[in-house]
Design brief:
A hairpin with a 2-residue loop joins β35 and β36. The chain has 695 residues and is an alpha+beta fold. It folds into 5 domains: 100 residues, Rossmann fold (3-Layer(aba) Sandwich), CATH 3.40.50; 70 residues, ATP-grasp fold, A domain (Dna Ligase, domain 1), CATH 3.30.1490; 263 residues, ATP-grasp fold, B domain (D-amino Acid Aminotransferase, Chain A, domain 1), CATH 3.30.470; 127 residues, Glycoprotein, Type 4 Pilin (2-Layer Sandwich); 67 residues, RNA polymerase II/Efflux pump adaptor protein, barrel-sandwich hybrid domain (OB fold (Dihydrolipoamide Acetyltransferase, E2P), Beta Barrel). Strands 14-13-10-11-12-15-22-20 form an 8-stranded antiparallel β-sheet, with helices on both faces. It has an 8-stranded antiparallel β-barrel with strand order 24-25-26-27-28-29-30-31. The protein is globular. The chain contains 17 helices and 39 strands. The model has no long low-confidence stretch (mean pLDDT 91). α4 packs antiparallel against α5.
Length: 695
């Protein structure tokens, strides 16, 4: 007989804390939040019934201090602790201490975390459970020299991984001896800083791999099921960017074989809770065990969409002693779901972190909730009808994105009838997602979704590195009809003129007039602007329509969106659209910035004579900053590796900046000599702040 909790504490922050609180409230449970000094005004604090301060902003002094979290639970009368993901969610010692204090850890038992949390031990257990494993060296490696010898024996390329790693930290791929030597040292240092455990192992790197994971769920009564798979191959620097369920790649036979092996492994460690078994899958659908994440995954919503299950509720019920309410045969696979991680990072600056205040935050309209009612019978019997949009977030307009934690702003999830429908819905949802004040990866996500190889399902974990190896610029994103953006700029100008014509006090015969012939000048950074002759018809205030002609193309645009609104909804030639339009741009204060389907233009809408004069204006080149090392992001300068007068070679390490839990090494782009060190170790840097000056 089980007894359901009445109050739970969430030992996390951000969107996952909010996600757990929503399900707990649906279940009628009281909630306790914990927060650091940086999160005093955070959303999860406001959503919870109670909140307890646990320390300063750095996670090692707050969210990673288990004693303070356990004390907060005891003080508030919480009977159980949900760890979310990250932080202490896979910490064996924390789970054990929770149990010793008479509390319940809403997750697997500590012995299961221990068995699977150590990647070396987990591979040995997987072998014993007859789970396919990758060739490699599963014992602790003591030195860079030993790492090189082992890598040579396995055969390049190899993957160097921290035993306690996760989230892309403590992981390097080496293609030669030098990369193995350097990668081993970097992995150990990064793993020690992030996890307090510097053990490293090496395994064969499968080329052209797909990253596919199986969601499992077990209870205390010996029941374990798998809830289908998730495709997580769209990654950058080993961190997931887009996830989807099901996978567009594997067959039903492969799905079943992977699921059965995942269940066998979970049973081998007496797994009780939600967990994920990750596999690398080759082109021939051969698959190998990577690791087991003994926690809820960031991408769990796509599984919830296609099964109709609330994984957080199931975790809580299992932790309270309930049996799983369904069997393997009851698990559904309904429609197609995609999740895009919306991160505070700047794709134009090699995806470096972006911190600061969310001046504008307007997610797309939500039509699907994270914590929908659970089925009472067969799994997924109340699954939402495909076609929904869901946003999981822990931020709000006016809030801060601090540099102390990860870069996630929100998770955008859509559920479609099939993969094609899901992609279309996601692109429209991205068009409607407004974020200002910090940089985000929204335009990059749109570009990924539109890429022919993604649409065809023809990709692997190296896709982003291969297709966007030279960086990303939203001005270069292909668009089905680039002139549509030009027409939108002209439409906004026409709408603004219509409003100006109605201003009172204008002298008769001297008021604002509509001039149909205009030139839209698309601005370029190098001064080579593109001029488009445009004819704009009358604006009909009743219908919100104006007809735009650009050469032979005709655009009948309708929109009742108010001037000044960033998000513009309307139709063009009868087809609905959502775009983002702003007055004022980085290249000209009177410009108009237009964004749609990941493509962005900055334009001036001028009279023909003004456009002629603009073409005569000389281009002002930006200042030459090649003799300075500038900080590419806000962050903490943790190391300056050179001194004044020191000669450096291309590729040599110059400085290290820490931001959002990741170390970023800045290297020399060419040979040179350091003239002056302009920033001190331990200093908090702003974007483009000079660190070094070269002779």
């Amino acid at each position: 007989m089980f007894t359901m909790f009445t109050k739970i504490l969430i030992a996390n922050r951000g969107e996952i804390a909010c996600r757990v609180i929503k399900t707990a409230k649906k279940m009628g449970l009281a909630t306790v939040a914990v927060y650091s000094d940086a999160d005093r005004d955070a959303m999860h604090v406001a959503l919870a019934d109670e909140a307890v301060a646990i320390g300063p902003a750095p996670s090692r002094e707050s969210y990673l201090v288990g004693e303070r979290i356990i004390e907060a639970a005891k003080r508030t009368g919480a009977q159980a602790i949900h760890p979310g993901y990250g932080f202490l969610s896979e910490n064996e010692d924390f789970a054990r201490r929770v149990e010793l204090e008479g509390l319940v850890f809403i997750g697997p038992k500590h012995h299961s975390i221990a068995a699977m949390g150590d990647k070396i031990a987990s591979k040995k257990l997987a072998l014993a459970a007859r789970v396919n494993t990758i060739p490699g060296h599963n014992d602790v490696i003591e030195s860079p020299e030993a790492a090189v010898n082992i890598a040579q024996g396995i055969g390049y390329p190899v993957m160097i991984k921290a035993s306690a790693g996760g989230g892309g930290k403590g992981l390097r791929v080496a293609y030669n001896d030098r990369e193995a030597f350097d990668g081993f040292a970097s992995c150990r240092h990064e793993a020690k800083a992030a996890f307090g455990d510097d053990r490293v192992f090496i395994e064969k790197f499968v080329e052209g791999p797909r990253h596919i994971e199986i969601q499992v769920l077990g209870d205390a009564h010996g029941n374990v099921v798998y809830l289908n798979e998730r495709e997580c191959s769209i990654q950058r620097r080993h961190q997931k960017v887009i996830e989807e369920a099901p996978s567009p790649f594997i067959s039903d036979a492969t799905r079943r074989a992977m699921g059965e092996q995942a269940v066998a492994l979970a049973k081998a460690v007496q797994y009780q809770s939600a967990g994920t078994v990750e596999f690398v899958v080759g082109r021939d659908q051969s698959f190998y065990f990577l690791e087991m994440n003994t926690r809820l995954q960031v991408e769990h919503p796509v599984t919830e969409c296609i099964t109709g299950l609330d994984l957080v509720e199931l975790m809580i019920r299992v932790a309270a002693g309930e049996k799983l309410p369904f069997a393997q045969a009851d698990v559904r696979r309904d429609g197609w779901a995609i999740e895009c991680r919306i991160n505070a990072e700047d794709p134009a600056r090699n995806f470096l972190p972006s911190t600061g205040r969310l001046v504008r935050y307007l997610p797309p309209p939500v039509t699907m909730q994270a914590a929908a009612p659970m089925p009472t019978g067969a799994a997924g019997s109340t699954a939402s009808t495909p076609g929904g949009v869901r946003v999981d977030t822990g931020v709000f307009e006016g809030g801060e994105i601090p540099l102390h934690y990860d870069s996630m702003i929100a998770k955008l999830i859509v559920h479609g009838r099939d993969r094609r429908d899901a992609i279309a819905r996601m692109r429209e949802a991205l068009n409607a997602f407004v974020i200002r004040g910090i940089a985000s990866n929204i335009a990059f996500q749109s570009a990924l979704l539109a890429h022919p190889r993604f649409v065809a399902g023809d990709f692997d974990t190296g896709f982003i590195a291969e297709q966007f190896g030279q960086g990303f610029d939203p001005a270069d994103v292909p668009h089905d009809d680039p002139l549509f953006l030009v027409a939108l700029a002209a439409f906004v100008r026409r709408k603004a003129r219509e409003r100006s014509a109605g201003i009172s006090g204008q002298l008769s015969g001297h008021g604002v007039k509509h001039l149909p012939n205009l030139v839209v000048v698309v601005l370029a950074a190098d001064g080579r602007h593109t001029h488009h002759a445009v004819s704009v018809g009358d604006y009909d205030a009743a219908t919100g329509q104006a007809d735009i002609a650009i050469g032979e193309r005709r655009y009948a645009i309708r929109s009742h969106t108010k001037l000044g609104d960033i998000r513009v909804d309307g139709s063009c030639n009868g087809q609905p659209f959502t775009a983002q339009i702003e007055r004022g741009s980085a290249r000209h204060p009177l410009g108009i910035r237009v964004m749609h389907n990941g493509r962005q233009i900055e334009a001036l809408v001028l009279l023909p004579r003004a456009a002629e004069l603009l073409a005569l204006m000389p281009h002002k080149a930006p200042p030459d900053l090649s003799k300075f090392l500038l900080s590419p992001m806000p962050g903490l300068l943790v190391d300056v590796a050179v001194q004044p007068g020191q000669k450096v070679s291309a590729g040599e390490k110059l400085a290290v900046i820490e931001a959002m839990k990741m170390e970023n090494i800045l290297t020399a782009t060419r040979d040179g000599e350091v003239r002056e060190v302009l920033a001190r170790r331990g200093e908090s840097l702003a974007v483009d702040q000079p660190i070094l000056a070269f002779a």
